[in-house]
Every structure is written in structure tokens, then in C-alpha cells.
């Protein structure tokens, strides 16, 4: 019998989990989980229902297990991004909404800084249906990109509705550039040689890859399709490759030809939401987590996600594993062992109270 790549070692009590972040302070490993909602007693199952006036639990790793050690206020949580600027440590949080129905999608996103042994809010951003933050640097410049927005009947934006890029001024982030997408989901930055790329995923306006020209980000390539969720870049044999997840269709592998990205492989069917690239020794693995198919009104919870291995010019499926409307996968190494934390957001019955899972990665 072959050894499985993923060995489940712990279930984390979460509710409507959407993303996780991990970091170390004073040799202690921490994990935070953004949570969308908890179930309301007597309310019929609905993936966009529930009580969003909740928090993001914080966990501390002890041995091979995480122990809850606090929480951050994060209503309707979608994302937590950990990053550092010099010796300073930050957590950027994003929540799509607040309330228990009706919901308010015009909210404040908080940026926390680690001060005197605790996370302290140090800046707030007026956001609309906020989804994900990405922190990245270009030379000595530090940026923080926010993906946000929805186009839903009866929901009006009183806060800025387009996705935005902020730049660090030394004590706070100020608006640097906007992107005219209406339903942003994610940003991803990658440096290939001297070229800096910034990919933007959008559900309705088409997703795009932008290129840094020294002053701002300009369009390199537009993908005119609905359902964009995320991108990932990697290099192999000196070539630049890119993955793009489309929830409504499939995940696509592209190769850069020097001018644009050219499609080379389709991975999986509809339902993909997030990716995690893992380098282990000389091998490259891809974890693709799957969320839902159907519609928000009649969703079909995806119960299986996949692990692929790079085979020189394509990915090969090597393992599937059980998930439940999975939303993110976060990899880290602790004590010489690699782990993978996968967040699950809905049960098969479309209830929020479903555990997320910590795996040992055996490759």
C-alpha cells in the first residue's frame, strides 16, 4: 500500500471558515482563521445566511496540535494576511459583511500591529464586500492590495466599491491605485527576473495580469471570463508558469511565451476556489481545494479536493482528499515537518459548523 501524501492529524473547531494565516513570534507558531458566519437556530440552511457578527479564532501550536489562544474581532470574515515591514509585524483583516440578516456590506477593515505582546488595531479602511488582502514589496516599496466588491440587486456601495492597491508611507497605508473590477476576489504578486507581475481575480469583470512599469501597474493580459477566484505563479526550468482558478469552469495552467500567457493544461472541473503550491525537496506539488458548484441559492457542496505533482511540463493528479466546501490551504514547516491547514466552510447540509483540518504533508 502506498503512503498517502496527506495525513489528517487534527480537526479545528471552525464555523464558515474562509481563510487562514500562519506566522511565528518568539519561536511560537500561530494560526488565525477568518470565519464568515455561524448558524442561527431555526434558520433554514443558506450559504449566504447566518450570524456574521463573530470573530476570528487564534491558535497556538503545541506539539503537532493547535490550541485556541484568543480571537480577533472580524465580522463576516473572509481573509487574514500576515506580513512584516522591517521588524514590525502586521495582520490585515477583511470581512465581507456584518449583521444577522439583513447584512451591511459597507464595513471597516482593520489593520493590526503586534505591540507589547498583543495585536493592536492601528488603521481602518472603508471597504465594500471585502474579500482578500495581499501584501508584497517591490524594491524598498511596500504595498497592500485589497480585492472587494459585489454586484447584487438591492446592495448599494456607500464606501469605495472597486479593488484597490495601497502603499506604505512609513506609518500607514495610503491609496496608490485602483482597478475597475466590480467583484474582486484575490491578488497575487510574483517577480520573474526584473519583471513584477500582479494578478487580479474578479468574478464578473474579467481577471487580469498587470505588470509594474516603474510608476504603476499596467495591463499585460485580460482574461474575459466570469468566475475568477485566484492566480498562482511559479518558475520551472527557467520558464514562467501561471495557474488561474475559475470557480465556474476549471483551473488552467499557462506558460509565458515572453509576451503573454498561453494555455497549456486544464486541471479539474468547476468548483475550484484556492491553490497552494508546495516545494518539497526537488519536487513541486499543487493542492487545489474545491468549494461549490451550482448557485448560491442552490449550491452543491464539493466534497473532494486534489493534490497534483509537477511532471516537467504539466501537473499529474496523485491524490484526492475529503473536504467540505473548502476555501483555502496554507502550508508551513514546523520542527522539520511540513503541514497543511485546510479551511472548510459548509457541511453537506449547508451548515456553517464544519471543522477545518490540519494535515501532515508526507512528501
Helix content: under 10%
Order of helices and strands: EEEEEEEEEEEEEEEEEEEEEEEEEEEEEE
Give the C-level CATH assignment.
Answer: Mainly Beta
Task: Bin the strand percentage.
Answer: over 45%
Give me the number of helical elements.
0
What's the number of structural domains? 1
Strand-pairing-aware structural class: mainly beta
CATH architecture: 6 Propeller
Shape: globular
What does the largest sheet look like? Answer: 4 strands, antiparallel
Low-confidence stretches: none
How many β-strand runs? 30
Q: And the CATH topology? A: Neuraminidase
The first-to-last residue Cα distance is 15 Å
The strands making up the biggest β-sheet line up spatially as: 1-30-29-28
Oligomeric form of this entry?
single chain
What number is the mean pLDDT?
Answer: 97
**What Rg, in angstroms, do the CA atoms define?**
19 Å
Would you give an account of this structure?
The protein contains no helices and 30 strands. A hairpin with a 2-residue loop joins β10 and β11. The strands form eight sheets. A four-stranded antiparallel beta sheet has the order 1-30-29-28, with no helix packed on it. The chain has a four-stranded antiparallel beta sheet with strand order 2-3-4-5, with no helix packed on it. With 363 residues, it is an all-beta fold. It has one domain (8-273): Neuraminidase (6 Propeller), CATH 2.120.10. The protein has strands at 6-12, 17-25, 28-35, 55-62, 65-73, 77-85, 88-95, 106-115, 118-128, 130-138, 141-148, 163-168, 173-179, 184-192, 195-202, 207-212, 217-223, 228-236, 239-246, 251-256, 261-267, 272-280, 283-290, 292-294, 299-301, 304-310, 315-322, 326-334, 337-344, 356-361. The two termini are 15 Å apart.
